[in-house]
Each structure stands twice: as structure tokens, then as C-alpha cells.
Amino acid sequence: MMQTFDADARTRFQTLYPETPGKLTHNLVGHPLFELDALIALSGRMRPVDVEQNIGNLPVGIDPEKVAHNGLSVADTIRSIEENGSWMVLKFVEQDPEYKALLDAVLDEIAPLAAGSTGPMLKREAFIFVSSPGAVTPFHFDPEHNILLQLRGQKTMTVFDPTDHDVVKPEAHEAFHRGAHRNLPFDEAICARGLPLTITPGEAIYVPVKAPHWVQNGPATSISFSITWRSEWSYREQYAHNLNAMMRDIGLNPGAPQRYPSQNLAKSTAYRAIAKARRIAGLDKPA
Q: Which of 55, 111, 183, 261 has the fewest Cβ atoms surrounding its Cβ within 10 A?
């Protein structure tokens, strides 16, 4: 099998990782697992809960409760994606053996490069996005390290600095880790702070952990493959936000967790100890 990332792409990834968004190149264009018929077959093997589909003409900032289903079956959405004005994601496709094998093969190429900064790749997951022309993925963030590989069509992702508290308040990070939806409120005043990155087939974008972003699809149908992983560093960042939320509940005003290379060890260790004690006491269910 041809390598997904050539030597130049791997060098570029190592330059960006883990905290700088930027473009890479890849060799997955034309792979049979991303043809529409293959995606229809995959959707038929998936749990309904792992398929999200909605109308695609959304504003950049939207309450997730106001996002409407497109009214089509999963297969019909994929089959007619060029004209039905939809946005769809097939989640956790690594549950399927063929797609898991591909995910692992791709991530294994860069795992040694990531390990030097953030350790082993944990919780490997993959998502496939199928979008109609002009569809919008609203403003949001994700807890994983992520590479979005473009296979068909064109899209522009606008990525923001995860440390800019004028873009996303620390309280929003804390709420997310307590179970709030990934979508974020969007203020037009922050537009100029974003970095727009346009990718076409054979190009990809590396997105750092919790870097806020939104996506505008181009004038043709788009298919993208998102490969993600967690790191021990990303979990420490999460647990530090969890501890901050507890502190805020009792009236304190904690400082935001620090980004890489800071490890947030004190807050992470404290949160894990508190969470374990609460589970032992029967106050919380295991995470």
C-alpha cells in the first residue's frame, strides 16, 4: 500500500505538531473506501446513533437545538448529496474492520513523530464527512488532535487560536467537558482572528486540540476523512478544565489551563484524585 503521507508531508506534520494548524498533503484520493457506493454500504453497517445528518445551509454560529434533520434516509442522503443541500458525518467508522485497518495504517505513519511531543496516540477514531455544495459546519471545537483529509471537492476551514479567550471563554471549555454540545456561539467581531485554510483533493489540515473552527464547503460535493487521536497531554488539559469547573462552582475564579508544552500536572492529578474519591463514595458514575 502506498504511504498516505510522503516524506515532505511527514516533515511538515512534525513542524506543526502539536499546536500549530496548517496544511499537509496526502495520497488517499481515489481510495475505494470513499466512493459513494462504499459509503452507502458502510452506513448500512453502522449504528443509527453514529450517523448525523442535517440541512447544510446553516449559519456559522447556531444553537444545536435549532439544527434540523434533512428528512432523508442515510442512504438517500449520500446517494443524492450533490443536490439535496445536506451535511452528514459518519462517526466512529473505526468500528468497521476495513476502516479501522485504514485508520491504523495512516496513523502508524506519523505516530512516531507525534510520540516525541505528546506520547502514544490514544483513542484512535475516524469520521467521514459528506457535504453538499455550499454546506456549512458551524463553529465548534473538538477534544482530539485531528487531521482532516480532503478526498473530493473543496472546503475552507477557518481555525482560531485555542488560547484566545475573546474567541472562546474558559467557561465554554469547562462546559464542554461536562457534556455540553461542541457547537459554540459565534461573534462576527472575531472573524479576522481566524486563519482560513482551503483544501482540495490530496490536501489535508492538521487541527490542534480544542482549536475552534468552522468549515465552508466549496461549489461541489465534498468527501473528507477525519483521523483523530487523544494524547496524555490532551487528557491533562481536559482534567484541568474539569477541576476549574469544580472550583468555579464554589465561587473561585481559577486560571485557564496552559497549552503545550505545559502539562497541567497539578490540576490534572488533583481532579483525578477527586473524581476517584467521588466514585468510591458512590457520588459519581465512572467516566
A: 261
Residue in this structure with the C-alpha cell 506534520, named with its chain if needed: 13
β-strand partners of 128: 90, 225
Look up residue 192 and give its three cell numbers: 479576522
Q: Report the amino acid identity of residue 230.
A: R
C-alpha cell at 101: 485497518
Tens-level pLDDT at each residue, the chain (287 residues): 689 999 999 999 999 999 999 999 999 999 999 999 999 999 999 999 999 998 888 889 888 888 888 889 999 999 999 999 999 999 999 999 999 999 999 999 999 999 999 999 999 999 999 999 999 999 999 999 999 999 999 999 999 999 999 999 999 999 999 999 999 999 999 999 999 999 999 999 999 999 999 999 999 999 999 999 999 999 999 999 999 999 999 999 999 999 999 999 999 999 999 999 988 988 776 55
Domains contained in the chain, CATH given: 7-230 (2.60.120.650), 234-280 (no CATH)
- Please report the sign of the dihedral spanned by the C-alpha atoms of residue 92, residue 96, residue 97, residue 103: negative
